[in-house]
């Protein structure tokens, strides 16, 4: 197995993000990414059609010889998180811009990672489902968070986000490849304080529409806030498309109150 290639990809992602934010036209700042390599045949991944939904994609549907799903988490900064404490249910303009700038960066970075992998004689693809979002069931057919879990990047919190060793205030992405590298394994235990010992629950209080409760996550209620933000923040564009490749929103469907103002937003468990 090619252990050097794992190191090369991790180093490339971290360097790319560090350099990208130095561009004069980029407003957003990011922390150092976390990178994991999930076994594409991991039973958890193979069961995602039951865990997430029947139309959820599998790595082998994207790349028949898929062996690995590269998953990475790019954290935002505490300064950005502080801007999102607006005193209202609306996200801050900086938060909306960061969401779109991050997604744009991912598209460019993924193209470079794929080029790097192909140069080494392997195949790699970004799943076409990764940019889609079904506004009826309010789910994507390619859940970055679930692949990131399988890659050992963290565990799910009561806020429905994946909490990594560096927190959950950030964004995730993936690449499917036939790289012959040693896969990582899911984290044992719980990073979410509420799941671990019943403490915290701050995300319940911070949700502006009470979509998060100890009983679960109300997807429809959460989406009402995202749509309201999208009506306000139209100048930054929209990252997601429908099955036909058309933008399915006029603006940025954001909120982030549950990931910017909780203890699990930023920490260091390394």
Q: Helical segment tally?
A: 11
Number of strands: 8
For the sheet with most strands, the description reads: 4 strands, antiparallel
Spatially, the strands of the biggest sheet line up as: 1-2-6-3
What is the number of independent domains?
A: 1
Percentage of residues in strands? 5-15%
Form type = globular
Which percent bin holds the helix content?
Answer: 25-40%
Blueprint (SSEs and pairs):
Layout: H1 3-20, E1 34-39, H2 43-46, H3 48-51, H4 59-62, E2 68-75, H5 78-83, H6 93-119, E3 124-125, H7 144-150, E4 154-156, E5 162-164, E6 170-177, H8 193-197, H9 202-206, E7 212-213, E8 216-217, H10 219-232, H11 257-260
Antiparallel strand pairs: 1-2, 2-6, 3-6, 4-5, 7-8
Helix pairs in contact: 1-6
Task: Provide a short characterization of the protein structure.
The protein is of the alpha+beta class.
Report what the structure shows:
- The chain is α+β, with helices and mostly antiparallel strands.
- It has one domain (3-265).
- It has helices at residues 3-20, 43-46, 48-51, 59-62, 78-83, 93-119, 144-150, 193-197, 202-206, 219-232, 257-260; strands spanning 34-39, 68-75, 124-125, 154-156, 162-164, 170-177, 212-213, 216-217.
- A hairpin with a 5-residue loop joins strand 4 and strand 5 (162-164).
- It is globular, with a radius of gyration of 18 Å.
Keywords:
about 270 residues, 4-stranded antiparallel β-sheet
């Amino acid at each position: 197995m090619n252990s050097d290639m794992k190191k090369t990809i991790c180093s490339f992602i971290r360097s790319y993000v560090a350099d990208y934010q130095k561009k004069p036209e980029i407003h957003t700042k990011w922390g150092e990414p976390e990178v994991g390599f999930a076994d594409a045949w991991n039973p958890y991944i193979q069961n995602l059609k039951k865990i997430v939904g029947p139309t959820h994609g599998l790595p082998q549907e994207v790349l028949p010889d898929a062996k690995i799903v590269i998953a990475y988490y790019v954290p935002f900064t505490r300064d950005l998180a502080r801007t999102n404490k607006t005193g209202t249910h609306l996200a801050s303009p900086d938060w909306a811009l960061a969401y779109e700038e991050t997604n744009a960066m991912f598209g460019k970075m993924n193209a470079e990672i794929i080029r790097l992998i192909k140069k080494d004689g392997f195949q790699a693809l970004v799943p076409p489902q990764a940019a889609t979002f079904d506004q009826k069931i309010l789910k994507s057919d390619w859940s970055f968070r679930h692949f990131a879990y399988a890659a050992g990047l963290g565990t799910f919190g009561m806020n429905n986000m994946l909490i990594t060793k560096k927190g959950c205030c950030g964004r995730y992405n993936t690449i499917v490849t036939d790289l012959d590298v040693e896969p990582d394994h899911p984290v044992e235990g719980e990073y979410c304080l509420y799941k671990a010992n019943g403490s915290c629950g701050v995300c319940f209080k911070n949700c502006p529409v009470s979509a998060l409760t100890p009983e679960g996550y109300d997807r429809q209620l959460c989406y009402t806030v995202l749509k309201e933000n999208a009506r306000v923040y139209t100048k930054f564009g929209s990252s997601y498309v429908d099955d036909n490749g058309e933008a399915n929103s006029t603006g940025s469907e954001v909120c982030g109150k549950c990931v910017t103002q909780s203890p699990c937003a930023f920490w260091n468990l390394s």
